[in-house]
Amino acid sequence: MADIRKTIVVAVSRNGIIGRDGDMPWRLSSDLKRFKALTLGKPVVMGRKTYDSIGKPLPGRPNVVISRQAAIDHPDVSMAQSLPEAIALAERLALEAGVDEVCIVGGGQIYAQAIGLADRMCVTHVEVDLEGDAAFPAIDPDVWQAGEALAVPAGEKDSYPTRYVVYERRQA
Predict the structure, then answer these.
(1) What is the DSSP track for the chain?
(2) Number of domains in the chain
(3) What is the pLDDT of residues 82-91, one digit of tens each?
(4) Each residue of 63-73: b (16+ CB within 10 Å) or e?
(5) Strands across the sheet with 44-47, in order?
(6) Residues 6 or more apart from 11 whose CB is under 8 A from it?
(7) Which residues of 77-104 are buried (b: 16+ CB within 10 A; e: fewer)?
(8) Rounded CA gap, 101 and 6, in Å?
(9) CATH number of 46's domain
(10) 61 exposure class (CB count in 10 Å sphere: 0-12, 13-18, 19+)
(11) What's the domain range around 31?
(12) Rounded to 5 degrees, what angle do the CA atoms 111, 141, 6 make?
């Protein structure tokens, strides 16, 4: 099977927070545009709570939702019971779509499992400390090599400035 890259896409505050009360604790219009550009046309893997917080499938990409409970009856959503099952399904969908990447887009529990499996992370570091109830695992510099970085000042529709960094898994 062709090598399909597994990429985590996340926005995380300085103190590791990614969510609060089932939603993101910020408004970052410029980052949502980047998220769309990064994920469009590629399978996205997410947990049920993340899917519920979005409220509908992300358009223009196959959506794979992980849930041990009820299925989501929607033509653009595939269901999986575990992260490994979801990634295998997303890799098949990527091959069918002719793309070489699947994007893991949350939430906290999914990221905690996926950080050990991912090849790459596209991280928007939100330049603020916040309260929240969903967190992203620490990025271990022994495992992850920071590559391209881009400081993004807060635009008119952004709550905070950000720093976008692409991390590649270091070779063992």
Answers:
(1) ----EEEEEEEEETTSEEEBTTB-SS-BHHHHHHHHHHHTTS-EEEEHHHHHHH-SPPTTS-EEEE-SSPPP--TTEEEESSHHHHHHHHHHHHHHHT-SEEEE---HHHHHHHTTT-SEEEEEEESS----SEE-----TTTEEEEEEEEE---TTBSS-EEEEEEEEPP-
(2) 1
(3) 999 999 999 9
(4) bbbbbeeeebe
(5) 77-80, 63-66, 44-47, 101-104, 5-13, 120-126, 162-169, 144-152
(6) 18, 24, 26, 28, 31, 35, 123, 124, 126, 162
(7) bbbbeebeebbbbbbbbbeeeebebbbb
(8) 6
(9) 3.40.430.10
(10) buried
(11) 5-169
(12) 40
Query: In DSSP terms, which residues pair with 80 in a beta bridge?
Result: 66
Look at the alpha carbons of 111, 78, 6, 130 in this order and tell me if their dihedral is positive or negative. Answer: negative
Polymer length of the chain: 172
Each residue of 28-61: pLDDT tens digit?
999 999 999 999 999 999 999 999 999 999 999 9
- Tokens 């967190």, residue? 135
**Tokens matching residue 126:** 């939100």
pTM attached to this predicted model: 0.95
